[in-house]
Every structure is written in structure tokens, then in C-alpha cells.
Design goal:
The chain has about 575 residues and is α+β, with helices and mostly antiparallel strands. It contains 5 helices and 32 strands. The longest helix has about 50 residues, at about 70-120.
């Protein structure tokens, strides 16, 4: 009767049986995930996003037909897919590491339970059989422990090697580099000197002009004005003037009073241009050449980046430009070269793209490459290095923003894996938060004591300036090039595949998502109550800064554009693929 009695699951025999089954499942699961991780690692090792033979074949075709726009679009789309697959693989390995740790943990717990309950159950063969059973149990446990240890070790090694792939592909090794500034300590989380600093960003001449990428401090906010909503570059409607820019470039226009500045380069020639803001005439055009230390051959850059990606900066008396060769130059407003020097060829596989910022008498340069990522401050009058901060980050294509927090001015930078704040006066690190991953292109944003940082395949992090904690985060439809626009109420993001999202800046609630036919490389700008967002085809998409999507206009430029527009005194200055436009009434 008792022999046929069914074992209850909670009896010692039942618990032992269930636990053994769970141990087998956990071990098999960990082994399978480990195999998948190793397979993915081998695939990633052989598939650097810039070494795609298919992309190279398309590039070779483009060399034979350089005007083929459809072929250019195919290359851009294919490059995006290759990079997306590459970083998705890295993400899969990172998640796999956590899954294996969990699986091995379950296996060890099951092993402990099996050990306890095996000792409780009597052996039917007496003491000798019990001893044999104990010895077998010990051997089994050791084998399971060894197997679990090997699985865990393989997972950790694979994860470590995957990080080395990212370092090689996206930014290079940082071993042996000093992590922070010469006058600061590594790992600083917060510094408060208690000194009140005048808000230089409130200076009237700064806010009434457009002195750097995304306007004063990189805020992407225009001075309130009567900015047009409708124009057409093809017919001339609403266009006050347009002029062809001699050499290509993806840098955005900067404006000071009656002058507009751009740079251009074809890899052989580097130039700076000064245009009359009133009629578009070229006031002067100057080469940037014959600089000691400048490379004899131009560096290899991607088509999207080009040889003149960083936007210029001005202090109202001088104008500054930097190129992927490492050449940086200063001109006065009459076109006289004040100084020029080479900062060293940046080791950057897409080409240098970080734009310049001026703070007082300092020119601030985010120079994050694969060899020695650093932040530099150059004397605006002489070009001499005033201070240098070495950074423990990977290569970055983002640009710094200069903000005033109510306590002091801060320079905030994006690069994997940190968003980091520095004192612009001396390069001292003030705080950092780890929240980035991959090849960082978008710049940070700041509003209402909140810092926003984002990158595709990483996350959108909304960071409280007061606590340094991540208040909320998001993971879907994140940009790889376009920078966010932050206001006191809203946060706007746009992707390279055409999705624009409006968030509640305080809580992360998604107010609306709008899909467009074209994607965005430029960054959105707030002008009045409208958000102006230029898509890659050259159409300015305009919508209301509100919790509901409200269409305000869609104005075509007549040619593609990847640049962010400048908004000054009721006029909009837009750089297209070939021309500079002035839009106004």
C-alpha cells in the first residue's frame, strides 16, 4: 500500500526530484546562452561596422558615379543597418552575461538544496551504500561546480572581450591614460567651491546672436521673434537671399550681428567663410593651411561626417574653426589670421565632429579620440593651451554645452560611458553619471536643473542636477546623430529614421510620437512656441511645443540638409548641401 503511495511534491523525495530538474534546466540554459554569446562574439569580431565589404562595394560604385543621390541614400541606409546590427550584438552579449549569472546562481542554489535533502534521505543499502552515495554526491557536486564555473568564466571572458571590441571599433584602448585634469582627482563625483559666478550666458550680446552650434551655450533656443513658418527654396518664396558655399561641409552656421560664418573642406583644401548677413555676399574667404604638424594626407572620414563637420564659434571679435586634420585657426572679423596650430591628428574612425564653444577668453575643445581623449582650453588671443583635462572615455562625436546652473557655469560633455561636467575656468571635473553606450553622436541638453543625455542602443537618461540621480529613462526611438531639445516642460527627440517623440521633461511620460517620411541628422530648435526641425531631405518640419502634436508648417529648402539652423533677429540661416540660405519676411 505504502509502496504505491504517490510522492507529494513537497515531500523530501518530491523536492529532490523537482530541484534536480531545475538544476538540469538551469545548467542547460546557461550552457546554451554561453554558446550563443561566444557565437555572437566571433561574428562581431569579424564584422566591424566600417569594414563591411558590401558597403565598400557601394562606395566603389559611388566613386564611379559621385552624383548618384539614390546610391548615396542606399549607402547611408546600409551603414545604419550595419551599425545597428553591430551594437545590437554587443547589447545581446551584455544581457547574456547577466542571464548566465542568473542561471549559474539558480544552479548553485539547486545544488545546495540537493545536497541538503540527499543527506536527509536514507540509503536502502545500509551504511556502505550510504558512503558510496555520499562519495558520488561529492563528485557530482564538484563536476557541477566545475561546469558552472567554466560557463560563468566563459561568459565573463566573452563579455570582457566584447568590451575590447567596442574599445577598438568605437574608441580604442585607454590603458595608461590619465583619467582627469592635471589639477583634479580621478573619480570626483561632486565639487562645490561655493563661489558665486556671474552668469556670462545672460550677456545681451550673446543671447541676441548665435555664437556656436545650437546657439548660446548650445541651448537650441532662439531669442523670441517673428520667425517665418513658410518658405520654398526652389521657388524663392520667403528666401531673402541664397549663395553657393565654395566647399562642402556639414557644420552649421553661426551668426554675430551682420556676419555669418561657415567652414568648408574637400579633404585637400580647408577654408573659412564670412558672409554678409544682410545680402549674402562673401565678405572674405580664407584658407587654413601651412600649419606646422598638419598631416600631409587627409584622414579617412565617413561620407556623413566629411572634412568640415564641427561648427565654428565666435566671441564677437574673433572667429574659430577646427577640422578633422586637427588644425584649429583663429581669424579676426576682417579676415586676418590671428593664430593657427595643429592639435594632433585625431584618431577617429568617422572623422572629428565635435563643435567649438567659447567661454570668456577660452576656446573650449572636446577632443575625444581613440588615443588620448581630452578636453582642451586654448587662449582665444594666442592659441596657447591654458589647461588640458584627460578623460577616461571613448571616442565621441558629440559637442559640449555651456550652461549656468544658478550656482556656477558648467561645461557638460557626452561620451561613452559618462555624461561629465567640468568647470570651464580650469577643467576641473565637477560630477559624472554613467549612462552612455556605443558611438555617441548626440550632444547633451539642459533645462530647469535637468540634464538630458541620449544615444541609440543605450538609453535616454533624465538626470537631476541636484541629486545626480537618473529621474527617468527611456529606450525606444533614440537618435544616433540629432541632439535633444529640452525646455522647462518638454523634451523632443528625433531619429535618423524619422520618428519624433515628445516627453514630459519632468516625468518621462510620452505625450506623443510622430513619424515623418525623412529622418533627422540636424537638431531641433525652439523659436517662439514652435519647434523647427530640418529633415535630411531639406524640409523644415515645424510643430508646436505642446503636449499634443500640432502641425505648424513644412517648408522645403530645395536641397538636402543635415545642418542645424541659426535663428537671429527674425531671420533663419540654413546651410543646405550646396547653398547658404537666409529665410525671412
Amino acid at each position: 500500500m505504502n509502496r504505491n503511495k504517490k510522492r507529494l511534491p513537497w515531500s523530501p523525495e518530491g523536492i529532490l526530484q523537482v530541484t534536480r530538474g531545475a538544476a538540469v534546466v538551469a545548467g542547460a540554459f546557461s550552457l546554451i546562452v554561453c554558446i550563443l554569446m561566444v557565437t555572437t562574439y566571433v561574428r562581431l569580431r569579424a564584422s566591424h561596422p566600417l569594414d563591411s565589404t558590401l558597403i565598400q562595394a557601394y562606395v566603389d560604385r559611388l566613386a564611379e558615379a559621385p552624383e548618384d543621390e539614390s546610391l548615396k541614400d542606399e549607402i547611408r541606409a546600409l551603414d545604419l543597418l550595419v551599425r545597428r546590427a553591430f551594437f545590437t550584438g554587443l547589447w545581446q552579449i551584455r544581457i547574456g552575461s547577466y542571464l548566465i549569472l542568473g542561471g549559474v546562481g539558480v544552479l548553485l542554489i539547486c545544488l545546495k538544496i540537493i545536497t541538503i535533502y540527499t543527506r536527509k534521505l536514507p540509503s536502502p543499502g545500509g551504511a556502505g551504500a550510504q558512503a558510496d552515495q555520499d562519495r558520488t554526491s561529492i563528485v557530482t557536486r564538484r563536476l557541477i561546480l566545475a561546469g558552472g564555473g567554466l560557463i560563468m568564466a566563459a561568459a565573463l571572458v566573452t563579455s570582457f572581450l566584447t568590451q575590447s571590441i567596442l574599445d577598438e571599433a568605437a574608441a580604442g584602448s585607454l590603458s595608461g591614460q590619465e583619467p582627469v585634469a592635471e589639477d583634479t582627482a580621478a573619480g570626483t563625483q561632486w565639487v562645490d567651491d561655493g563661489e558665486f559666478v556671474e552668469n556670462i550666458l545672460d550677456a545681451e550680446d550673446l543671447v541676441n546672436n548665435w555664437p556656436c552650434f545650437r546657439g548660446p551655450g548650445g541651448s537650441a533656443r532662439a531669442v523670441p521673434g517673428d520667425y517665418p513658418l513658410h518658405w520654398n527654396g526652389s521657388t524663392g518664396e520667403g528666401v531673402l537671399w541664397e549663395i553657393e558655399v565654395p566647399l562642402p561641409g556639414s557644420n552649421s552656421p553661426i551668426v554675430w550681428e551682420n556676419r555669418v560664418f561657415l567652414s568648408g573642406s574637400n579633404g585637400t583644401i580647408q577654408e573659412v567663410y564670412c558672409f554678409d548677413a544682410g545680402n549674402g555676399a562673401i565678405l572674405w574667404q580664407r584658407p587654413v593651411d601651412n600649419i606646422p604638424g598638419s598631416p600631409a594626407e587627409p584622414p579617412i572620414v565617413s561620407e556623413d561626417t566629411g572634412y568640415a563637420a564641427p561648427s565654428m564659434a565666435t566671441d564677437g571679435a574673433r572667429v574659430f574653426a577646427i577640422f578633422p586634420t586637427g588644425d584649429v585657426a583663429c581669424f579676426d572679423y576682417e579676415g586676418n589670421q590671428v593664430w593657427a596650430q595643429n592639435l594632433g591628428l585625431p584618431d577617429n574612425h568617422y572623422g572629428h565632429a565635435s563643435s567649438l564653444v567659447v567661454y570668456g577668453d577660452l576656446l573650449l575643445v572636446q577632443y575625444d579620440d581613440q588615443s588620448e581623449p581630452k578636453l582642451l582650453a586654448l587662449d582665444t588671443q594666442t592659441g596657447e593651451v591654458v589647461w588640458k583635462t584627460l578623460r577616461d572615455v571613448t571616442a565621441s562625436w558629440a559637442s559640449p554645452i555651456l550652461v549656468y546652473t544658478g550656482r556656477r557655469p558648467e561645461l557638460i560633455l557626452n561620451a561613452t560611458p559618462f555624461v561629465t561636467s567640468y568647470d570651464p575656468r580650469n577643467g576641473r571635473e565637477l560630477w559624472r553619471v554613467e549612462c552612455l553606450w556605443g558611438e555617441v553622436g548626440p550632444s547633451p541638453a539642459y533645462a530647469n536643473k535637468m540634464v538630458f543625455t541620449v544615444n541609440q542602443y543605450a538609453m535616454l537618461a533624465a538626470i537631476s542636477y541636484e541629486t545626480r540621480g537618473i529621474v527617468w529613462e527611456a529606450y525606444e526611438d533614440l537618435p544616433d546623430a540629432s541632439s535633444p531639445l529640452a525646455t522647462e516642460e518638454y523634451l523632443f527627440l528625433g531619429t535618423s529614421y524619422g520618428v519624433v517623440t515628445c516627453f514630459d521633461a519632468k516625468t518621462g511620460e510620452v505625450y506623443w510620437v510622430q513619424e515623418f517620411e525623412e529622418g533627422f541628422y540636424s537638431s531641433p530648435v525652439l523659436a517662439g512656441d514652435g519647434v523647427y526641425f530640418m529633415d535630411r531631405s531639406g524640409v523644415m518640419q515645424i510643430f508646436k511645443a505642446d503636449r499634443e502634436y500640432t502641425f505648424m508648417g513644412a517648408s522645403p529648402l530645395g536641397e538636402p540638409s543635415t545642418c542645424t539652423s541659426a535663428f537671429v533677429k527674425n531671420r533663419i540661416y540654413i546651410r543646405g548641401e550646396r547653398h547658404l540660405f537666409c529665410i525671412g519676411r
